[in-house]
Structures are given as structure tokens and as C-alpha cells.
Inverse folding.
């Protein structure tokens, strides 16, 4: 999988991000994101704790980053 998204009905938090990162130990997606009705937080380098953005890149951008 390229992207694992966890949808939340609450404020985005470190706890929510930790939850989706834990799920990803089984899924092995290249990217993980948490979203709610108003926000998105995408982790694009899973080894980097500060590598997060608040937008969803296009599919070609995601694919290019994984092969580039």
C-alpha cells in the first residue's frame, strides 16, 4: 500500500498518529495520515518524527517520492 489513512471524529493528536503508525507495522504503507473533518496530518518519512505536512499530495507526487 502507498498510503494508510486513519479517519478520526476528534482533534488530531500524537496519540492518533501513534495509533496509525502502530497499524502500519502490519500494513507497511509508505505514508500514513490522520484526518478529521477539518484537518489532515501526513507523515511522509516514517523514520522522521518531524517529517509531517498538513496537505495530501497528489497520487503522482506520492508515487514519485517513493521511487525518487
Amino acid at each position: 500500500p502507498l498510503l494508510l489513512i486513519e479517519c478520526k471524529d476528534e482533534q488530531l493528536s500524537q496519540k492518533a498518529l501513534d495509533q496509525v503508525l502502530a497499524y502500519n507495522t502490519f500494513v507497511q504503507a509508505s505514508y500514513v495520515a490522520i484526518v478529521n473533518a477539518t484537518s489532515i496530518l501526513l507523515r511522509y518519512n516514517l523514520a522522521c518524527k518531524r517529517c509531517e505536512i498538513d496537505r495530501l499530495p497528489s497520487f503522482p507526487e506520492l508515487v514519485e517520492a517513493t521511487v525518487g
